[in-house]
Each structure stands twice: as structure tokens, then as C-alpha cells.
Amino acid sequence: MSKFLxxxxxxxxxxxxxxxxxxxxxxxxxxxxYITHYRQKxxxxxxxxxxxxxxxxxxxxxxxxxxxxLADLTIETxxxxxxxxxxxxxxxxxxxxxxxxxYYESNKDVIIVVAHYNSWEFxxxxxxxxxxxxxxxxxxxxxxxxxxxxFKEFREKFGTLCLNKGEAKHAFKNSNGPVAMLFGSDQxxxxxxxxxxxxxxxxxxxxxxxxxxxxxxxxxxVFFGSLHCLKRGYYSxxxxxxxxxxxxxEPGEISEMHVKALEKLIIEEPKYWLWSHKRWKxxxxxx
Length: 287
Prior knowledge:
alpha/beta
């Protein structure tokens, strides 16, 4: 079924210009929001818990904005499957790449913390074209092996390394040059007992400690990467240094830094975060 979906529908669609594909977004939005009610219970619950002081009308407006974004995200992920290098360069810029220059010249790896915010699949595919460092990303393989292979191929098309958790620990040692390792900061950790707990969007939240663990283990500077929408289909990545001396930080300090950076980004423009994700499924003290 997945092969038919890919070769029969997704791949042919991916060759269309993005402006043509975007014309389908209104249809997808209508299907997501009004017909299938895709994960609406999760979305509205997440929004209400995150913004308890907002009115029902305000929550609904954010939700509608999110579903419009989700429709565009779906379209842009399909387009990403046949993306050319010229298109990738045109649709993604890094605002301040020079903040990494001194580390690159010193042959020093860095960590960039990102999130499921704006068109993250496009970011993963295109970012290696915009950095001097070799971009690498840690990902969880999809259950469907065929689709996992497809997604890995188009993410790696322009040189980004896609590594599972077992491979990631060797990436820094085995690369021929300095690596910029991208970590997703908003995944629910595999265990509540092996997490850093904090308040995020007004809720007690378990945070995966991978960023902190790798930063301290390899003594790597940590940046937060915020992805901003310039106009429909065009994005800008902004890098913010969180710490360049991780070994001297207190336990949980790095985790708190990137959580607060993401929280600020979401509060500024909430519709661009993945509210359909069950982010708060972990309970403190449980496994």
C-alpha cells in the first residue's frame, strides 16, 4: 500500500511547482478541520492547557491557523520529495551563519536544537546547503520500512546525514569535517524517569536529555535554531547561542535553556507548532 501511495500519488505530485501544490492546501485544510476532524481533541486540549487565559474564540482561531499550516506542511513535504538544489537554496536562508564560523575554522562540532515548528522536513533536507558544517540529524525510523527509506533518501539528498540513535554517538568521531548535529527538542522522552522535568507552556513537561548529554559528553556549543516563515513556502533559520561551555553548566541547565527558547518561539506564533502531537503523554514518576 505504501509503495502505491508513493509511486502512484505522492511522487507524481512532487514534480508540480510549489505554487500549484499550494492550491490544494485549502482542500486539505477543509478535510483536516471540517470533515475528518483530524486529532482535534488532542489539538484543542493542548491549546487550552497551554494558553489557559485565552478565550474559546482565541483558541479556535489558533487551531484553525494550525490546520492551515498543517495543510501547507503536508504539501511542502510532498514537494520536498523531488526538490532540486536550486529550489532548496531559494526557499531556505540562514540569517546569521557567521555565528558558526569560528567553530568551523577551529574544526569544532556544534549542536543545533530545533523543533517540530514550521516546515521542519524542508529544513532537514535543505540545511546542509546553507551551513559550512556538515549537517546531521538524529531521527526515529518509521515503522513502515519502505516509507522510512523514502524519507531518509530525500532528507539526505543534499548531504544531510540521517542517523538513528545508535549511530549518532559515532557521528562526531567518524566525520571528515566539523558536524552540526540537529536535535529535535520537543519529542516526548522514552521514559519519564530518564527525563528532565520542567514547566513548559503552563504544563509539567518531561524533556529528553539527549541534547544536554551529547553537549557535555563532547564539550560542544549548543545553539537554538528557530525557523521562521518569510512568506508561504520560504523560510529563514536564525541561530542563537545558548552555551559554548556546556561542561560548566548545572544539571538540567541546558535543557531549561532550549525549552524556554522554544516556548518563546511558540508564544510569538503558536500556529506553526505541531499541536496534534501528544507532547504531554508522560507522567512524572511513571516509566
